[in-house]
Write a structure and sequence with these properties.
alpha/beta; six-stranded mixed beta sheet; 299 residues; ABC_transporter-like_ATP-bd; Rossmann fold; ATP hydrolysis activity; four-stranded antiparallel beta sheet; binds adenosine-5'-triphosphate; Alpha-Beta Plaits
Length: 299
């Protein structure tokens, strides 16, 4: 269980994280979204104990993370820009981790070679970007961490390998109840993996929700009216976005699905359809609500 209490992180006079509080349950796969520069990497590095909190506190299983060597045995961070010692082979790196991590699992390391299929004796810096990322997962999963913090984790992996890695992560959660925190711009991927989602915007927590609740709360409504109602009628519902597409109107509406449908049914429409939004659509509309808008959104 991870608890972040009123976390603020400051670089010189710039507040990269502003008073963020949240709670991540054990066994959760928690997705972190946000525009470029929103503070995701800073947040993850503070969670991993690489950065010290300037205000507030980060706890993992009720222990402070920063400078906590014991806890760092159980918490692994895979950064977006990977780092390996130059001239090290995979086996050299494994030896290094074997010496550091008491939880290192040799059997798993050997078995995962069948998944990643890269020669142990290859020099890591001579491998492709995607292969280096495979090595990062291979070594990390051999450490058997309890908490895995991943910054843009699947970047550079091909589609087959992405699926394999996602399966390995889901298996870890199912079998060992590890906790995974993932930041990514690939919302399709987060949608498949995560049970919880948070959106950071300019260092602040914009929204934090269970994935199912998030989807229950926002709808894409397509409606064709016999006679369009007056504009003010829509003030009774929480419309985030509205667009005319020929004879059909598209609404993005927040609120209870049944209440939204009852409202539109009141006009006896010729056509009425309410569809769930994808995570990508939810992100765009939530951000649009905060002034981070893209024009002419076409789905
Ligand atoms: N070491 C640092 N020194 C000064 N400013 C920093 C440092 N690291 C990050 N920042 C600033 O903090 C803000 C948040 O950066 P961060 O890398 O956390 O964003 P991000 O959400 O991960 O962005 P992206 O999606 O583009 O990777 C940015 O304005 C960035 O310039």
């Amino acid at each position: 269980m991870i608890e972040v209490k009123n976390l603020t992180k400051i670089f010189e006079d710039f507040e990269a994280i502003k008073d963020v509080s949240l709670y991540i349950n054990k066994g959760s796969i928690y997705g972190l979204l946000g525009s470029n520069g929103a503070g995701k990497t800073t947040f993850l590095k503070t969670l991993a104990g690489i950065y010290k909190e300037d205000k507030g506190e980060v706890f993992i299983d009720n222990d402070r993370v920063f400078e906590n060597e014991k806890l760092k045995q159980r918490v692994i961070f895979i950064p977006d820009a990977l780092y390996f010692f130059s001239s090290y082979t995979i086996e050299d790196m494994a030896k290094f981790y074997r010496d550091i991590y008491i939880t290192w699992n040799e059997d798993r390391y050997q078995r995962l070679q069948k998944v990643f299929k890269i020669d142990f004796n290859k020099k890591i810096h001579k491998l492709s970007k995607g292969m280096q990322r495979q090595v990062a997962f291979w070594l990390t999963l051999s450490i058997m961490p309890d908490v895995l913090i991943l910054d843009e984790p699947l970047d550079g992996l091909d589609s087959v390998m992405r699926q394999k890695v996602k399966n390995l992560l889901i298996q870890e959660v199912a079998e060992r109840e590890i906790t995974i925190i993932i930041s990514s711009h690939n919302l399709r991927e987060l949608e498949d993996l995560c049970d919880h989602i948070a959106i950071l915007h300019e260092g602040s927590l914009l929204m934090e929700k269970d994935m199912d609740d998030l989807k229950k709360d926002i709808h894409k409504v397509q409606v064709a009216f016999r006679e369009p109602p007056i504009e003010e009628s829509f003030n009774k519902i929480n419309v985030l976005y509205k667009e005319q597409r020929g004879s059909v109107m598209l609404f993005i509406v927040r609120g209870d699905r049944e209440k939204v449908l009852t409202h539109f049914n009141g006009y006896r429409p010729l056509l009425l359809d309410a569809l769930p939004l994808t995570l990508e659509e939810i992100f765009i509309y939530e951000m649009g609500d905060k002034g981070y808008v893209i024009e002419n959104v076409i789905f």
